[in-house]
Design goal:
Length: 297
Amino acid sequence: MVSFYPKINEFLSQINQIILDKNQQTKLALCSLLAGGHVLFEDLPGLGKTTLASSLAHLAGLKFQRIQFTNDMLASDVIGINMFNQKEHQFEFKQGPIFTQILLADEINRSSPKTQSALLEAMEEGTTTVDGVRYDLPRPFWVIATQNPLFQSGTYALPESQLDRFLMRLSMGYPSRQAEKALLQQSSRQQLIANLKHVFDEQDILELQLLAEQIYAADTVLEYILDLAEETRKGRQGLSTRGVLALKKAAQAHALIEQRGFVTPDDVQAVFNAVVAHRIGASEAETVKIMQRVSVM
């Protein structure tokens, strides 16, 4: 475990040179990857969502595909399609862009709910099914999705079943004045990303995901997670059991990034809003109040 700490630090250092003044968001994005969960970036266009996603993919050293979702996109454009091979006189499967290790689903909520649902099986099972035949996706498989606010024209709300597949939902927000000035002074983001060196590779990511699963969570921490979940269930759409498990996994990954072999309540609190808010339809202010009402054991 200790041998990975320099690489984790290098990963965060490099990405924070591209994405300025957003250290918390970049740490939580890495946390999502190490926890084996997908991440959804929600914000206005032009605030760096796609830049962050591209930087994460580059530094992770994994195979990468990008899909620009549009309102006329079909599920087969994502998954692939069976095509008739006239030479062989039989159908053969032509893989879609989902057959990769990191999939950037850009502006995912500009496509119809039917097309969005094409990702559900892949995000949950790491497989996809076409005409009754199941195909395994590469490992690791990580979806980084971006979406625009629903008040913008041409957008569709993500179904609750799909929102629940995302381990975290993050928002970039506007940069500080100092960070925005630095952006004006630097060269293009694309050039900076191209100059980045891979920090991890496929085997590193798989090992780190396994290490994150093994981070110790004491009974007192598990009771704290359950108390938080119970608090969300008072008078609202509460956190599901899937959400409780996601909160534990994210807290374990956060502890690994913080270079500890055990989970603390601070780890749970650090990931709570990103893991819970989109599952229960709460704002960040509301999730903060939930944590304030639950005592730390």
